[in-house]
């Protein structure tokens, strides 16, 4: 039996050696790609290309390696490869261990230089000034709706949407001991507390709930108090040495947050794209119908319409609209130009790969 085990381990070592050789071969090709892009002034980071790699490998795999793990493994391979071409600096709405941090790691991998900033406007400013080529900010939650600060920043800057990230939000109850009976108060961001309200009422009915600036700040507070617990991410628990009291405590398990990657650039078409625009229409009879007609007549699917008050004039609104397709497609371009004729202003925020 020991001889058989030894032979199997030797076989694994041989496979690992081959994987390592292939990783180095891949890295050499990536460096050549980087030089070719540099000569042609093309962007190093192309999210549609990454999506195509993940999808091709997922379809090609016949197991038994888990399909969900393919993306995670190649996410880090691609992240490390990109760092060979050019150090990837990414600003995100911090602090570390928030769900925005998790989303940035999911999109850019551990080899990227992830820089936490204190506010959404600070992320936009960092990218607009060229101090970071990309920024990650939340834009909407499936339960709580839009993040108004992010939409407002598109009215104040010329940054574009370069990619989107969908993250399943898993709220964990974390503490020093990991025992429910030790919990005397619970810290978290107000949204996280609201999303776990029923679980808290059923399991900790007499325990005070205390607002924190972020889920990461709550984890930091729990790390300093043996009688406290925090509702936060698993990453926060790892960072602050907290143990899980209970995982997945959100009342609605179908809890997703959508994040945007903002940049000064526009990405290349990828074949599975989404286009976002913002516009302000003139206030006149029938305008809302005329606003939708250019898309309806061309069979263009609108996946989201959101309005925000126009802060420079009372009772007037800016609309944010998402549609399937890329702005370079003739029907999309024609629909947007037809809408523009009815608008006081219209801005294309970006055409970018749809998150899967």
Automatic annotation (TrEMBL):
Enzyme Commission number: 4.2.1.51, 5.4.99.5
CC annotations in GO: cytoplasm
Highest taxon above the source species: Bacteria
Keywords annotated in UniProt: Amino-acid biosynthesis, Aromatic amino acid biosynthesis, Cytoplasm, Isomerase, Lyase, Multifunctional enzyme, Phenylalanine biosynthesis
Gene3D superfamilies per the UniProt record, alphabetical: 3.30.70.260, Chorismate mutase, Periplasmic binding protein-like II
A matching Pfam family: ACT
Pathway, per record: Amino-acid biosynthesis; L-phenylalanine biosynthesis; phenylpyruvate from prephenate: step 1/1; Metabolic intermediate biosynthesis; prephenate biosynthesis; prephenate from chorismate: step 1/1
Residues flagged as site, Essential for prephenate dehydratase activity: 257
CDD domains: ACT_CM-PDT (cd04905), PBP2_PDT_1 (cd13630)
Primary localisation category: cytoplasm
Catalyzed chemical reaction(s): prephenate + H(+) = 3-phenylpyruvate + CO2 + H2O; chorismate = prephenate
GO molecular function: chorismate mutase activity; prephenate dehydratase activity
Start and end residues of each Chorismate mutase domain: 1-89
GO BP, sorted A to Z: chorismate metabolic process; L-phenylalanine biosynthetic process
Location in the cell: Cytoplasm
UniProt keyword annotation of Isomerase present: yes
Domain Prephenate dehydratase, residue spans: 89-264
Domain ACT: from-to ranges: 276-353
Keyword set includes Ribonucleoprotein: no
Function per UniProt: Catalyzes the Claisen rearrangement of chorismate to prephenate and the decarboxylation/dehydration of prephenate to phenylpyruvate.
Protein name: Bifunctional chorismate mutase/prephenate dehydratase
Source species of the chain: Desulfuromonas thiophila
């Amino acid at each position: 039996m020991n001889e058989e085990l030894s032979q199997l381990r030797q076989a694994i070592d041989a496979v690992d050696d081959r994987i390592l050789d292939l990783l180095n071969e891949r890295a050499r090709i990536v460096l050549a790609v980087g030089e070719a892009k540099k000569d042609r002034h093309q962007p190093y980071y192309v999210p549609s290309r990454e999506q195509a790699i993940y999808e091709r490998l997922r379809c090609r795999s016949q197991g038994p390696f888990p399909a969900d793990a393919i993306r995670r493994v190649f996410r880090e391979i691609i992240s490390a490869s990109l760092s060979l071409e050019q150090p990837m600096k990414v600003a995100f709405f911090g602090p570390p261990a928030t769900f925005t941090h998790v989303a940035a790691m999911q999109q850019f991998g551990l080899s990227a230089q992830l820089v936490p900033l204190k506010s959404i406007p600070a992320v936009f400013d960092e990218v607009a000034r060229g101090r970071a080529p990309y920024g990650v900010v939340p834009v909407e939650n499936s339960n709580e709706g839009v993040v108004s600060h992010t939409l407002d920043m598109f009215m104040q800057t010329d940054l574009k949407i370069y990619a989107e990230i969908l993250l399943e939000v898993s709220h964990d109850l974390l503490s020093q001991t990991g025992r429910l009976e030790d919990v005397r108060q619970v810290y978290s961001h107000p949204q996280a507390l609201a999303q776990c309200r029923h679980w808290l009422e059923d399991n900790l009915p007499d325990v005070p709930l205390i607002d924190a600036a972020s889920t990461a700040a709550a984890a930091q507070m729990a790390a300093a108090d043996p009688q406290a617990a925090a509702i936060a991410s698993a990453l926060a628990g790892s960072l602050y040495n907290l143990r899980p009291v209970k995982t997945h405590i959100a009342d609605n398990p179908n809890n997703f947050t959508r994040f945007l990657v903002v940049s000064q650039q526009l990405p290349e078409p990828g074949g599975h794209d989404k286009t976002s625009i913002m516009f302000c229409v003139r206030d006149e009879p029938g305008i809302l119908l005329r606003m939708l007609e250019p898309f309806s007549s061309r069979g263009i699917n609108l996946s989201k319409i959101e309005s925000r008050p126009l802060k420079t004039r009372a009772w007037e609104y800016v609309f944010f609209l998402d549609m399937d397709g890329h702005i370079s497609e003739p029907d999309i371009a024609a629909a947007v130009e037809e809408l523009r004729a009815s608008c006081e202003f219209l801005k294309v925020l970006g055409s970018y790969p749809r998150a899967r």
